[in-house]
Amino acid sequence: MTTTPHGQEYHTYGLPVGTVRGFLSVLICSFFWIVLLYPSDAELRVPLAHFFLLSMVFLAFASQPLSELHTQRFLPWLMRFIFVGGSIAVIAYVLYKDPQRLPTRLTPNPDEIGQWPVLLACLAGGFAGGLLLRFILGRNSPLFMTIRAWLGIIATLLLLFETLFQFVILPNMSDKPSLDTLKIWEGVLIAVTAGYFGTRA
Length: 201
Description:
Keywords: Membrane, Transmembrane, Transmembrane helix. The chain crosses the membrane at residues 20-38, 44-62, 74-96, 116-137, 149-170. By secondary structure, this protein is mainly α. Helix 2 (48-63) runs parallel beside helix 6. It has 8 helices and no strands. It has one domain (16-199). The protein has helices at residues 19-37, 48-63, 66-71, 74-97, 101-105, 116-137, 142-169, 179-199.
């Protein structure tokens, strides 16, 4: 299903361009904030998968056209201020209170390092899938815009559940899932989130 080049593109949920990517970026960064701000006696490390998610934040932030920045409204700038300013504030606070906590918690579990090829494939596949979908259907296609909106919703829900799972559910599980099981879940999380970023690239 395609449209003519003169068709009108509607941004996701009718929000200013960049708002949803900004909100997803806040969710991704907030996971790191929680890990770093957890009490010092807690044994926490950022899962390897979240560094792949973080790469999309940098990609979206660095690749946004200057012409788009000049025309952005308040909400996208607010999202950008939150995830950039919040990250700077958290890192500065942790460096002041407990400098050793920063490298300790930002170093992934060595047992997870072997997962990087699969996680990288999920990242590349999801992002490329979003780009391909836009190329085939057309940026202004109603079907494409519907799929893009649903990807945004699903990515948001998955990121919210991931935070809940890692900090509330997983610590209270007596029989914790294996690394291979978590790898499948994290691969899906990365692929869906990357898919949305791909549709907006």
